[in-house]
Amino acid sequence: MMADWTVFQTPAMLVATLVAVALVGLSKGGLGGAFGLMGVPLMSLAMPPVLAAAVLLPILLMMDAVSLWLWRGWRDVAVLKVMVPAAAIGIGVGWATAAITPDAVVRLIVGIVALAFAARAIFGRYIGGSPRFIPAMGWLWGAVAGFTSFVAHAGGPPFQVHLLPKQLDPKVYTGTSVIFFALVNLIKVAPYAALGMFQREVLMSALLMVPLAVVAVRTGAAIVRRMSPSVFYPFTYAMILVVGSKLVWDGFTALIAS
User: Where are the domains of the chain?
Assistant: First the structure.
């Protein structure tokens, strides 16, 4: 019966989406960007990647609403003033080039950047120092995050490359990240709609996931609130390594298969 009003034509499609929403929700709550990146790949095991991305975007918007409430008051305004306009430019470029941008190439490039950044952060004292925060670079990394978020749902690593060296309080870092990606996802609605990605079945499928999305976001936020900086930053760098490795693997295997 569910197949009549949602995109879930098989039990596997429903199960993959449930697992993906749970992991993305933990990430939206602030617990590691790697979980968020697993959403579309997990759903793509049981449905076309384009359909997975279309279903996930409304769910992300719902999660953003919960995250904004949970992390209200925690933000770095100066960072957002630079990165959000830059991300809008990146999204525009992604929309304009959607038909000619290979998803695999984007994932591969972002993965390599993420791995290089994490390696420098971990081994910086041996290879010329740890990464430094440069405010003006927010224009570059914000645009890259907007572009990769639009074409490959992989905006996390560029955002982290720019902001992690600032060594913000974990709550401020998480709150800033929540606001940034909430705005990015909101900006993405118009171009996604223009590409015809929001059908009735897609929206009904997303609505079905609301209860799980809320619980997952609240759980992720509760865990992060109890983390000290000495735990949060090593954990986050470890997640970047996982994210980068998965992006490189996904991009490389897709290019080989094509």
Answer: 2-257
